[in-house]
Specification:
Elements (H helix, E strand, L loop, with lengths): L4 E6 L7 H12 L4 E6 L7 H11 L8 E5 L10 E6 L2 E6 L5 H6 L3 E5 L15 H14 L23 E3 L2 E9 L5 E6 H7 L4 E5 L2 E4 L12 E5 L4 E6 L4 H5 L6 E6 L1
Parallel strand pairs: 1-2, 1-3, 3-5
Antiparallel strand pairs: 4-5, 4-6, 7-8, 8-9, 8-14, 9-13, 10-11, 10-14, 12-13
Helix pairs in contact: 1-4
Length: 261
């Protein structure tokens, strides 16, 4: 029998005890779980960044995996905690939009509010619900506790505005959604939008820069700008051996356009 999997995503970093305490709380309830770190380097309070990272990772886990995602500027406030089942996976997170892409992509989803006290620690800290509420709920789900046991069903939850590509005349317009560790600019232009606009031949524009499409980074000359579709099937702007973000001096939200060649 496959061991249950619990995957963690936070903005906590790894310098402090926070991630370890969450894992300890989970293992206390589900000691045979395999614990996986997606990332703990989401920028502090960056809910959209967390939503993008979660959406890029979860489809590659075995069916039935449980994800606990905590990027939570509203910790201790009246915002709800949620547990969801979607696309064959289970998720626990604050109700602040962190599950936007997971729930938007799912054909059907069941979502409940975390209410049942027996599935949280007895003393819930108002500043560390990740340890005391979310990690325990994820561990109970990993033990095959029915989703409905954790609380009442809800049919509305917070959804972020996630920019999407739009066609304007002869131009497909998008923007930089995130910048990865290598300085690659990951955009809101996905492959399906691109293929529908310019199946053959296109030029990518960032400010005054006209950038050629390549199949992989190594096809561009060293230190040259290039554009390609990365592993998340989004158009990326990169520099072979360098940082496109530093080279272009841009940040999240910078406009990116595609024109037909």
């Amino acid at each position: 029998m496959m061991r249950p999997t619990i995957a963690f995503l936070t903005d906590f970093g790894t310098r402090d005890h926070y991630v370890g305490a969450m894992k300890g709380a989970a293992l206390t309830i589900c000691p045979d779980a395999t614990l996986v770190d997606i990332t703990h380097d989401v920028d502090p309070q960056d809910i959209l960044g967390g939503a993008l990272e979660l959406a890029a990772a979860y489809p590659y886990f075995p069916p039935g995996a449980v994800f606990v995602a905590v990027v939570d500027p509203g910790v201790g406030s009246a915002r709800r905690g949620l547990a969801a089942e979607a696309s064959g996976y289970k998720f626990v997170a604050p109700d602040n939009g962190l599950l936007t892409l997971v729930l938007r992509e799912a054909a059907a989803a069941q979502v409940v509010e975390l209410r049942a006290p027996q599935f949280a620690r007895a003393d819930v800290s108002r500043t560390f619900e990740g340890r005391d509420r979310f990690a325990p709920a994820a561990a109970w789900l990993a033990r095959d506790t029915p989703l409905a046991s954790l609380g009442p069903a809800v049919d509305r939850w917070e959804m972020l505005r996630v920019p999407q590509a739009e066609v304007s005349g002869n131009t497909l317009r998008g923007e930089v959604l995130r910048i990865d560790r290598f300085g690659n600019l990951v955009t809101s232009i996905d492959r399906s939008a691109f293929d529908g606009f310019a199946a053959t031949g296109a030029m990518v524009l960032v400010g005054p820069h006209r950038i050629h499409l390549v199949g992989t980074y190594a096809e561009a000359p060293p230190n040259a700008l290039c554009a390609l579709f990365g592993s998340s099937n989004r158009l990326e702007v990169a520099v072979n051996g360098g940082s496109a973000a530093r080279h272009l001096g841009v940040a999240r939200g910078a406009p990116v356009a595609v024109t037909r060649a």
